[in-house]
């Protein structure tokens, strides 16, 4: 205990963003590090992720969401990998163990043992445990029930989720995988690095026309991170019996003139009926059985070289506010990871 610092640096919200979060809306501050209580461990964070859903939490949150809003003065939080610094003598965790938890955006965290998930070491690199592949795998296998030969459209295919959705869909047997993005440069990288067969680009003409050209026989599965125009184009391009699984709402979360708390879209419900399209909202947090299966598949694929973990590394907690702004304006491909 004597080796523990008395303070820990953390990232706090200073002001509720007007539009997309900017670095000046956040501050890196020192805060007292509390002593651990019974059943708690002290963790030194090694990595944490920067994720788009923070826009919603910083803007006041959404009723019914699994996470509370972040108010001015609050520290941010999110997925992290930490090293155990102190642990109860009779507990399952030992000093030096690596665990995943939800108290990122700080250098040290005091966390209940029950809220820590030990890393078994099955993955080649500990940082791979920060992937959102569980959501992708669960959505495609449970939600969309992907079938061999399906044509799959992944909206938002360059982000933390989408950069894994394309490769995973291919490994699960998809015959053709199409993605969307708002950047021509990302579109090229998605084909070259992520294995997409084609990519449609928002802002380069009508998306529905681009998608129809990329999938002339229609799409069988939509893996939707975006909503908005991407969802409308998917309805127009869907084959009979198409299965849509919705996992995100980036059209609202990244809207410049909003709070990130809503993502309205107008759909032609007549087409949903005529084409017998099924549409399902999916959250891996409500599907605990998928975790072990996903970890086993991911480890096997990763060790064979069949799949990687596309991510951008940002060094140091001082760079975290800038990293969040860059993610919001679409600068990076893959997951943004802050290394401490």
UniProtKB/TrEMBL annotation:
Keyword annotations: Oxidoreductase
InterPro entries referenced in this protein's UniProt entry, alphabetically:
ADH-like_C, ADH_N_2, ER, GroES-like_sf, MDR_fam, NAD(P)-bd_dom_sf
**Pfam families listed in its UniProt record:** ADH_N_2, ADH_zinc_N
Keyword Electron transport in the entry? The reply is no
- Enoyl reductase (ER) domain sequence ranges: 19-338
* Alphabetical list of Gene3D superfamilies matching this protein: Medium-chain alcohol dehydrogenases, catalytic domain, NAD(P)-binding Rossmann-like Domain
Q: Which SUPFAM superfamilies match?
A: GroES-like, NAD(P)-binding Rossmann-fold domains
Identify this protein by name: NADP-dependent oxidoreductase
Native species? Actinoallomurus liliacearum
């Amino acid at each position: 205990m004597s080796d523990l610092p008395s303070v820990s640096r953390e990232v706090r919200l200073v002001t509720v963003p007007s539009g997309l979060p900017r670095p000046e809306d956040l501050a890196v501050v020192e805060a007292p590090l509390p002593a651990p209580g019974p059943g708690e461990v002290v963790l030194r964070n090694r990595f944490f992720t920067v994720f788009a859903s923070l826009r919603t939490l910083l803007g006041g949150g959404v009723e019914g969401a699994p996470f509370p809003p972040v108010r001015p003065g609050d520290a941010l939080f999110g997925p992290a990998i930490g090293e155990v610094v102190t642990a109860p003598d009779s507990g399952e965790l030992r000093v030096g163990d690596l665990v995943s938890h939800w108290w990122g955006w700080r250098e040290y965290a005091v966390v209940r043992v029950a809220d820590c998930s030990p890393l078994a070491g099955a993955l080649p690199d500990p940082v791979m445990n920060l992937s959102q592949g569980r959501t992708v795998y669960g959505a495609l296998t449970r939600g969309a029930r992907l079938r061999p030969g399906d044509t799959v459209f992944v909206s938002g295919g360059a982000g933390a989720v989408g950069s894994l959705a394309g490769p995973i869909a291919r490994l699960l047997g998809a015959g053709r995988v199409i993605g969307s993005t708002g950047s021509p440069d990302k579109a090229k990288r998605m084909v070259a690095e992520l294995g997409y067969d084609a990519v449609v680009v928002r802002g380069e003409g009508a998306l529905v026309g681009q998608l129809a050209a990329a999938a002339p026989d229609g799409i069988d599965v939509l893996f939707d991170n975006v909503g908005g125009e991407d969802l409308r184009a998917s309805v127009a391009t869907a084959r009979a019996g198409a299965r849509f699984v919705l996992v995100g709402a980036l059209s609202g979360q990244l809207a410049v003139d909003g709070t990130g708390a809503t993502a309205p879209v107008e759909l032609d419900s007549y087409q949903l009926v005529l084409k017998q399209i099924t549409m399902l909202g999916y959250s891996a947090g409500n599907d605990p059985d998928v975790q072990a299966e996903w970890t086993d598949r991911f480890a096997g694929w990763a060790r064979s070289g069949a799949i990687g973990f596309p991510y951008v590394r940002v060094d140091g907690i001082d760079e975290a506010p800038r990293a969040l702004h860059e993610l919001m304006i679409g600068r990076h491909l893959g997951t943004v990871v802050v290394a401490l």
